[in-house]
C-alpha cells in the first residue's frame, strides 16, 4: 500500500514487535495504539495490561486514559492497583513493558518528570506514574516515540525510568536482573541496543527515510548498523486496522462518550 | 458508625484546615462533588494526597488550598499536563507548594501499608530512579533473609479520605466495582472516610460474594450524589466525559479563564448540579 504517514509507520512497526503470547504492560498514547493494532492483526491472544488493573483487555476504541471503562468492560479480570503493581508487575509476570518518552537518551533512559532543574523546573511534566517500576520489573522494555532533537537528547534532565544508565553492565551493577530497553521504534527507524555498550543503534530505516533525516532529528551522534535494513511498508490490513481504530477512537472521545457508556 | 448526611455537612464535619486528605479514584470513581464542596467551604493549608492528582487537585491547587501535594502522576490522564499545578510548582502562583513525589508502585504500596497498620511499605522499586535523590522519604531496607536491598516508603495515613462509589445499602455498607483502583486501601488507611454514592438500595443480598464491599463501620459519612464523579465515571451508571478532560486543558491554561470557570461551575453551584452533568453519558450504561 502506498501513502502512509511516519507516525502510522511507527505504530505499525511497533505493533509487529509484539507476539501472540506476550503479556504487555501498556503505556498510554503511542504504545497503546501499537499494542491494539497487534491484537487486531497478528497477535489476537496477546494479553494487554493497563496500570488501572485491567488484565487481558480488548478495547474497541483506544482509551483516553489508562482507566477508561472500556478497558474494564473487555478485560479478563480487573484487580486493584496495589495488586497490579505487587503481584503482576513486581511478581515478574510481564514480558514486555511498552513505554513512551518525553525525553530519551541513547541508553534508553527516560525522562517524563521535569525539563530543567527538579526543584525549579522550566517545565513540570506529569512524572513517572507506573513507569519507574515497569522499566525495571518487566522482562524487556520497548520504547516508542517520534524523533525530535528536543526529545532525543545527549543528556536527560531527570532519570524518571532507568534504561541502561551509563551503558554496558550498569543495570547488573545496580542489581537489576531484567533486560531493560531492547527496542526503540521511532517514526523514522527501528533501533536496538549494541550488545556490549547498550547504545541504541539504528538497525532498520523506514521506507524512504535517509540516514541524514535520522541524524537531523536526534540530539546525539547516531550509530548505524553495518547491515542496515529497510522496514517493510505497512500492509493494507495493518493500515486499515490502525485507521479504523483511530477513527472509532476519535468519534468516541469527541462525542462526550455518547456512543459508549460505562 | 456511619451517618447519611448531605454532602455539605459531611465535608464540614470531616475535613479541617491543615488536614492531610486523600480524594482518591484511579481515573474511575473520582470524588469530584466532594472536592467541589471542599472548594466552596474554602479549606486552607491542606496536604493533598493522591496517586493521579487529576482535575480536582488542579482546581484545589489553583484556588490556593494546598500547602503540599503527595503524588505519583501530576497529569491530566491521556491529555497532558495539569496547568494550575504547573503554575504553582514553576511560578509559585497562587502560592508555592511543597511536593512529595513517588511512583505509582510506591504510592500503592504505601496506601496498602497504611490500611495494614504498618509504619512503612517495602517493595522492589525505584531502582536507578531519580526520585530517590529528590524525595528523602524514599529509603531502602535490606531483606534479613536474602540480603536483597528493597525500597521503603512511609505508609500513607490520611486524616480523611474521600471516595466515590456505586451504591450503599440502607445500613451504610458501600459497594465499589469496576476499576477498584486504590479505593479500599485509601479508606482503610485513613482515620476517617467519607463516601459519595450514586444511590442507596435496600440491601446487597443479590450481589456476588467477592465484590469489594466496605462495611458500614469503616466509614464516617455517606452522601448520596448522583453523578458525583463527573467528569470521571461510575461503572454501570455513566461513562467518562473524555471531552471534558480535553476541554480542561484549555480552561486551566489561563489564570483568569480558570477563575471564571471555577466561579460559574463550582462556587455558584451545589452538589445537586452533578446529576444533570451525566445525563448525556448514561445512554448505554
Describe what this molecule looks like in 3D.
The complex is a heterodimer of chains A (about 260) and B (about 280). By secondary structure, chain A is α/β, with parallel strands linked by helices. Chain A has a single domain, classed as 3-Layer(aba) Sandwich (Glutaconate Coenzyme A-transferase), CATH 3.40.1080.10. Chain A is about 30% helix and about 20% strand. Chain A contains eight helices and 14 strands. In chain A, strands 4-3-2-1-5-10-11-12-13-14 form a ten-stranded mixed beta sheet, with helices on both faces. In chain A, strands 6-7 form a two-stranded antiparallel ribbon. In chain A, strands 8-9 form a two-stranded antiparallel ribbon. In chain A, a hairpin with a 4-residue loop joins strand 8 and strand 9 (about 120-125). In chain A, helix 1 (about 5-15) crosses helix 2 and helix 2 (about 30-40) crosses helix 8. Chain A starts with 5 loop residues before the first helix and ends in an 8-residue tail after the last helix. Residues about 255-260 of chain A have low confidence and may be disordered. By secondary structure, chain B is of the alpha/beta class. Chain B has two domains: about 5-100 and about 155-280, Glutaconate Coenzyme A-transferase, CATH 3.40.1080; about 105-155, no CATH class. Chain B contains ten helices and 15 strands. Chain B has helices at about 5-15, 30-40, 55-60, 85-90, 105-115, 130-135, 185-190, 240-250, 255-265, 275, and strands at about 5, 20-25, 45-50, 65-70, 75, 80, 100, 120-125, 140, 150-155, 160-170, 175, 190-200, 210-215, 220-225. In chain B, strands 1, 2, 3, 4, 7, 11, 12, 13, 14 and 15 form a ten-stranded mixed beta sheet that branches. A three-stranded antiparallel beta sheet of chain B has the order 8-10-9, covered by helices on one side. Chain B has a two-stranded antiparallel ribbon with strand order 5-6. In chain B, a hairpin with a 6-residue loop joins strand 9 and strand 10 (about 150-155). In chain B, helix 2 runs parallel beside helix 3 (about 55-60) and helix 3 crosses helix 4. The longest helix of chain B is centred in the C-terminal third of the chain and has 13 residues, at about 255-265. Chain B is globular. Classes of the chains: A alpha/beta (about 260), B alpha/beta (about 280). At the A-B interface, helix 3, helix 4, strand 9, helix 5 and helix 8 of A face strand 6, helix 4, helix 5 and helix 8 of B.
